[in-house]
Please model this.
Amino acid sequence: MEWYENLPLFHQILWGIVVFFTTIWAIQSILRIAGMGANDVDIDNSGSDAPGDTGDGPGMNVFEVSNLILFCAAFGWITLSGIWSGMSDLNAAIMGFFVAAILVVCLAWVWLQLHRLSSSGTMKIKNAVGAIGKVYYPIPPAGKGRGAVLVTVQGQRRELPAITRDVSVTEPIPTGTEVRVIDISDSGTLLVAPARVLHSSAGAQASANEEA
Model:
């Protein structure tokens, strides 16, 4: 790593950004290709009070974590490319920032268009109510944002945006946690609650009924 140690500090930082964020982005891409985040389904938000609302599922928001990871990776590569082409560090960094920002905005727009196209398909998202799924992107506590769950709808496993309004949830629901879909919001987002919480509540109610 002698070549790395001989680089200016700014160049070392850029290489660190490139290696770290490109690796994370590549892992995310492999997981999606493997089906962990499959979004190849047509979704019909029939019953929604806002059919024109496409929601804010993962990848559609410019400030989603996955898009910020892509921005950092793109910024590093573009800035290094500018430096290699003879640009000053400052000019290369400015170019890298704006080009990476445009790339992320364009990607978010593409996701939005794909989601709109999917809304005319055949999958009835209302059929997800009552299903048990697993958290894919951590779901923030009630009212603090969206995550995503992997849930089987009409015999096919899908990644869908999800939120929780369960007041007992005070910490983000971590990846891998089982949740039950209890309703669908107007924008087509799943309303979920931890399956263990619902199970405990049902058990407590049954015990109370027996005692009565």
Remarks:
- The longest helix spans residues 89-118.
- Confidence is low (pLDDT under 50) at residues 36-60, 198-212.
